[in-house]
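Reopening this ticket.

The earlier resolution said the output was attached, but the attachment link was broken on my side. Pasting everything inline this time so it's all in one place.
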Amino acid sequence: MTSVRTLLNEYDVRPRKSLGQSFLNDGQMIRRIAVAADPQQGETIVEIGAGLGLLTEELARKAGRVIALEIDPRLVRALKDRFANCPTVEIVPGDVLDYDFSKTNPGGRIKVVGNIPYHISTPILFRLLEYRRSIASMLLMFQKELAERIMAPPGKKDYGIPSVIVACYASVSRALTVPAGCFYPEPDVVSTVLQFVMYEDLASSGDHVHLFATVRAAFAQRRKTLRNNLRAAGVAEEALEWIFRESRIDGARRAETLSVGEFKILSETINRSDRIEKFLDKGQGI
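Inline output:
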């Protein structure tokens, strides 16, 4: 496998801190990630942040089709040169936050793989969840601390918005731990690769709007009770009494104590209330 340093010199490219560029440079780890992704003939894989294409190359050995997303024009040129004679790889320039995953494989579901930029990891994750109906699974690399928050169970200090939202839509497991020494340039953090397997999603989009609004409002200030946070989010006092009575959830509890199932019940109850317009205005985003 060609090294990152060799390719950087060949294409006269230097890593850009503004884009959070740190390239995976360990051949064994790259192969382990490719194995964890489990590419199959007939499958479409979208790779986020293809970089210089080392993981792209491994995925393309077995996948039916690889769409490599890359925002840096310098790397796009390098990728197009490297994969000019590989018909199963398509290089797509642009920002992942603008990419429409639903059009990648109409009528089917795709896999997503990526070493995503740490400074925008959460927006990318939520963007991907917007396309949950089009994605079968995701293998994504995060800074270890964010990975811990995503996987945190109720009652733990790391349990928060990412923990709840992800658990509503996917089962999550730790696939790999990636030491800083596997990258060039070497970052100051340890990385974790998480495997997401999406659930079948039959709920309406409106239900998801309510769920996201509920979770976001409940965690707005972690030390405050559910009642105080929902009131601050615009739920009328008289509506709060009905919501907590109907959901059988104590408004004096804090968000970190609620299970994912309880958040769903709370969201569904709020959805049935007739005084939540202001609340919903703050809940758009997933």
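Reporter confirms the inline version is readable. The radius of gyration is 21 Å. The first strand starts at residue 23 and ends at 24.
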